[in-house]
Amino acid sequence: MTPPPEANRPFGPGAQWLRVSGQRPEVEEGARLVIVGAGGHGRDVLDAAEADARYEVLGLVDDGTPDRALLERRGATFLGPLRVMEDLEAFYVLAIGAGGARQLVDQQLVSWGRHAGVVAHPSATFGADVIVHPGLVALAGARVTNHVWLGRNVHLNLNATAAHDVQLGDYATLNPGANVNGNATIGRGATIGSNASVNQGLAVGAGTYVGAGAVVVRDLGPGITAVGIPARPR
Ligand SMILES: CC(C)(COP(=O)(O)OP(=O)(O)OC[C@H]1O[C@@H](n2cnc3c(N)ncnc32)[C@H](O)[C@@H]1OP(=O)(O)O)[C@@H](O)C(=O)NCCC(=O)NCCS
């Protein structure tokens, strides 16, 4: 699963992954960025993107009807529906909470030739030998220690942690304050709820949703919802 070694380098178009050690993933200074999803989570991602300050944030797109007044109050530009990305030369990050929906929108954008960028709030920390794939969003206080694998479009919300040797599959999500302990594996599209934790060495299956505050003490299979302490499928 580990790709060949490659030094830290800017995350340009076509980059499949990069390895970072003790620093945030590099991005192309001044590259243009669009945030896909203009709801509350979109504004959270915008906070991180603005604090990150390495991109020129063009604005946000959304197929729904976001609160444009809230966006205008902070000087953010609503660019329109997703399809504006078809002709817009810009990187994107997805401010979409659900991993499955994130994957569908990602596939659409890739089919239009767009490239996912990486947004990491300056207070997010990365240990040694962390593999990052396109689309990573790390909000304020997210912490990743060493030898962690972050799949495509992984989202690390506020104060979420992933400890040594953790693997987060493509489109996996750690909600605010979620803690994934050493050597645990979180499957593709799975979500760990706010303030939930996953004990060391366990596996959470693809698409599984761990409820807020749960403590995972046994492996969980794919496609289930598990809540409580200890976390049990319901
Ligand atoms: C687990 C979860 C997905 C279930 O959502 P849901 O399917 O809409 O569930 P409901 O609210 O209908 O609740 C169904 C039952 O599960 C219980 N339940 C729901 N979430 C629970 C949780 N986190 N822990 C314990 N019990 C929970 C409810 O009390 C209810 O029990 P009852 O049938 O005895 O009354 C959701 O409650 C949750 O925890 N989401 C994570 C929230 C989060 O992390 N938000 C951060 C966003 S950035």
From TrEMBL:
Residue numbers binding substrate: G97
Active site residues according to the UniProt entry: H164 (proton acceptor)
Site positions per UniProt: Increases basicity of active site His: D165
InterPro entries in alphabetical order: AcTrfase_PglD-like, Hexapep_transf_CS, PglD_N, Trans_hexapeptide_repeat, Trimer_LpxA-like_sf
Any Pfam family matching the protein: PglD_N
Molecular function GO terms recorded: transferase activity
Keywords: Repeat, Transferase
Transmembrane residue ranges: none
Occurrences of domain PglD N-terminal (ranges): 32-105
Superkingdom assignment: Bacteria
Protein name from the UniProt record: PglD N-terminal domain-containing protein
Organism: uncultured Acidimicrobiales bacterium
